User: Fold this.
Amino acid sequence: MPPEAKKSLAELLAIMAALRAPSTGCPWDLAQTFATIAPYTIEEAYEVADAIERGDPAALREELGDLLLQVVYHARMAEEQGAFAFADVVDAIARKMLRRHPHVFGSAAERAAGAAPGFWERIKDAEKAQERPGAGVLDDVPVGLPALTRAVKLQQKAASVGFDWPSRQQVLDKFKEELGELEAALAAPTAGSPRQQEAIAEEMGDLLFVMANLARHLKLEPETILRQANAKFARRFAGIELKLAAAGKTPQQSDLAEMDRFWQEVKAEEDKA
Assistant:
């Protein structure tokens, strides 16, 4: 038998329209709104990143499909409200890519000039000034971003107008300063009081913000390296569990000293590999 023809984008749009059809659609899909679907959109973006991190092309294909479905879903709901349709989403992003790549799609002079450093941000800033006159430098950094990612984007925006530490050493000095302030908050005489807890939380937030800034100065993406650190911790703890299981025990039957000893063994084994 000949292989079944691949489904098209037009068919996917038709499937979503059928799922949202008022009398014959899926009750769950009909009950959804932009707000209820938004968490799934964020989750699917993370799953795409996870598939890339794992180097799994098959999973990446599936997760990209799930992410595309989110775009189709939002566009369908917008079309039902008369706001815009999927074709408008495609048109808008295509025009943006053409507009923001004059060194590829522009005039002969623009193509000859090439991609000057910082051209993307300059074009974005010009667009923002035209669309939202009087907007502040940080106004277009989305609040809904993961906190570490938003910290870096806020810092990048501030740096674009000259508000930045000139060297990484100054960022390190600021890190030490914030660490000292956290230690002072922890040692405050009002131990356990709501005021002390607020001070500790504030200083911890400042410390995390500076750590994100240090990662930026080191040209590292803090979300990425933290995911890698999370994966390393999970892998090594799984190694502890294997060693405990070989001894006929569970983590609940162990203690910190034994688990730390196994942790060091797992770490040493990884270092040798």
